[in-house]
Design a protein that fits this description.
alpha/beta, UDP-N-acetylmuramoyl-L-alanine:D-glutamate ligase, Protein-Tyrosine Phosphatase, Chain A, 2 domains, six-stranded mixed β-sheet, 15 helices
Length: about 450
């Protein structure tokens, strides 16, 4: 038997094996485990940005309608077990330990096979499938793609609906350096006869998805073609929008900020509509309204403190940065906006920093403990902002910043989701200690 720390340590140690695109190794691992994925009803969510938010909108709607919902997501924010959850509750430690005890000998026994040992992500994916199939047994599982789609370890499932949220220039060292190439990888999750819901905007990406769906005999439901949204009101703590499709329409509110979140919510609305047409679920408009309003996803325009105003947003690629900048320009033009940014080296850093500079009164660059992370000096050198700062120790920087902020200031902490997952628990504790001392 392992302890929880030993179990997670064994999983993380598999990072040394790197990223291993391809499904043969995954299929062999699952066969050894009794093919648990074949026992699940699921929805598959891929895309560059918006996957996590779309998952949480879907989960909350389905929960409101009375269903038990499993989710497989990445990365985690505060605790590893968040990645495998049921109705938002992370897998219990003892179940994680049992899964590692089950999978470890199989995984290590594959060392001398033609495929080699499974990677960290493959192991976690397999663990989730065993847990959902054998222990938790939810009504439906929402699987978020890890990287790309076609060769991602989650792509062993045959879902009820596939979702492709958006296409952007990210992970180009794995997925290609054109929109068409990246779209081809994302479209790899499309299965024979399984309907596809997409929010992809670029014409060339839409064509790749349509062509892939045609080959598989799958119907495509394209945002702003087959279903439509209209932003009704910018709320203080969210958005109000109208949704319309041939089968349903209504006005809904969400608690996450930004017009891009309306798009993610619409993907969830269209997906549950398709699940109902397949006689897999039933729901009322009240379930839709309540689910969308309750949906919350950490690190996506997350207001962690009102006074001082601190917002976390995991904008880790150009498309995510553009959405963040648009939201800042819409909502915070009267504020002094300071941005604290850290990212991994394999991103389009110069482009991303240039976009952030459009919305920042001041911009600060830092680093954190993670493989492939960019140093503060590197980021600082890429910036042309007249009010830029190097923050070698982000904790010291945040302490000083929180103590100096007034009502006109807002601090955005953004960049790598791994950075935000390190920052958030520390930041929450700092804010709590500050409140107690007043």
């Amino acid at each position: 038997m392992f302890t929880y720390e030993e179990a997670v340590g064994w999983i993380h140690a598999r990072l040394r094996l790197g990223i291993k695109p391809g499904l043969q190794r995954m299929n062999h691992l699952l066969e050894e485990l009794g093919n648990p994925h074949e026992k699940l009803k699921s929805v598959h969510i891929g895309g560059t940005n918006g996957k996590g938010s779309t998952v949480t909108y879907l989960r909350n709607i389905l929960q409101e309608a009375g269903y038990t919902v499993g989710t497989f997501t990445s990365p985690y924010f505060e605790r590893f077990t968040e990645r495998i959850s049921v109705n938002g509750n992370p897998i219990p430690d003892e179940d994680l330990i049992s899964l590692v005890s089950l999978i470890k000998p199989i995984a290590e026994g594959m060392k001398d096979s033609e495929w080699g040992e499974p990677s960290e992500f493959e192991v976690i994916t397999a663990m989730s499938m065993v847990y959902f199939a054998e222990t938790a047994r939810p009504d439906l599982v929402l699987f978020e793609v890890g990287l790309g789609g076609r060769l991602d370890s989650t792509n062993v499932i045959t879902p009820l609906v596939s979702i492709i949220t958006s296409i952007g220039m990210d992970h180009m060292n794995f997925l290609g350096d054109t929109i068409e190439e990246i779209s081809f990888e994302k479209a790899g999750i499309i299965k024979q006869g399984v309907p596809v819901v997409t929010g992809v905007s670029q014409p060339e990406a839409r064509k790749v998805i349509s062509d892939a769906a045609a080959v598989k005999g799958s119907l495509v439901y394209q945002s702003e073609k087959d279903f439509h949204t209209h932003r009704d009101t910018v709320l203080d703590n969210g958005e109000r929008f109208q949704f319309e499709s041939p089968s349903q329409s209504g006005t809904y509110e969400i608690s996450m900020l930004g017009s891009h979140q309306i798009q993610n919510a619409a993907l969830a609305l269209k997906t549950v509509e398709l699940l109902r047409s397949q006689n897999e679920i039933t729901f009322t408009d009240m379930h839709l309204s309540a689910g969308l309003k309750k949906a919350y996803w950490p690190g996506r325009m997350e207001l962690v403190s009102e006074n001082p105003a601190v917002i976390l947003d995991g904008a880790h690629n150009p498309e995510g940065i553009k959405a963040l900048v648009a939201t800042i320009k819409e909502r915070f033009t009267a504020k002094n906006v300071t941005i604290l940014f850290s990212a991994l080296k394999d991103k389009e850093l110069k482009h991303m920093i240039g976009l952030l500079e459009e919305a920042a009164s001041a911009i600060s660059f830092t680093t954190f403990s993670f493989p492939r992370v960019a140093e503060a000096d590197e980021l600082f050198a890429l910036s042309d902002h007249p009010n830029k700062v190097k923050a070698g120790d982000w904790q010291v920087y945040v302490d000083e910043k929180l103590n100096s902020m007034d009502d006109d200031d807002v601090l955005f902490i953004t960049g790598s989701l791994y950075f935000l997952s390190e920052v958030k628990p520390v930041l929450i504790q700092k804010l709590e200690n500050s409140r107690k001392s007043k």
